[in-house]
Amino acid sequence: MDSDYQKNRDGIRTADKIHDSLKRVIAGKVDLAEKYKEIVGHYPTSVTI
Question: How does 11-48 read in b/e, with b if 16+ C-beta sit within 10 Å?
Answer without folding.
Answer: eebbbbeebeeeeeeeeeeeeeeeebeeeeeeeeeebe
